Amino acid sequence: METINQTVSGTGTGGTLPPLEVVQVECPRCHRERLVVGEEGPRCKKCRYRKPGCEAARDYLEEVQGIDVDEMEVNGDDFTLSECYECG
């Protein structure tokens, strides 16, 4: 089995991995497109909103997309969130 270093060095990148892509979306608290989702977890550069990934995802669905997650759960509907690896 190849190690990560063998795989990466074989791609011609000089043995380094590319940086993790950082994504900015609308913040569920201040509604500005300053919520950064990256290595450190979701955090807003404007209002300093910060929660674990699963809680931030739920807030995003409810506050930004207008989805009532509780109602969907009661009705047995499936919604965009899947089981969170952080909190189960």
Q: How is this structure best described in words?
A:
- This protein is α+β, with helices and mostly antiparallel strands.
- It has a domain at 20-75.
- It has three helices and three strands, in the order αβββαα.
- It has helices spanning 4-9, 53-64, 69-75, and strands at 23-25, 35-37, 43-44.
- It has a three-stranded antiparallel β-sheet, with no helix packed on it.
- A hairpin with a 5-residue loop joins β2 and β3 (43-44).
- Residues 1-10 have low confidence and may be disordered.
Number of helices: 3
Helix content: 25-40%
Topology pattern, helix = H, strand = E? HEEEHH
Given helix and strand content, the structural type is alpha+beta
Query: Biggest sheet, strands in spatial order?
Result: 1-2-3
Q: Rg, please?
A: 18 Å
Principal-axis shape equals globular
End-to-end separation in angstroms reads 31 Å
Poorly predicted runs of 5 or more residues: 1-10
Estimated share of beta-strand residues: 5-15%
Tell how many strands the DSSP assignment holds: 3
Largest sheet: 3 strands, antiparallel
Summarize model confidence as the mean pLDDT.
Answer: 76
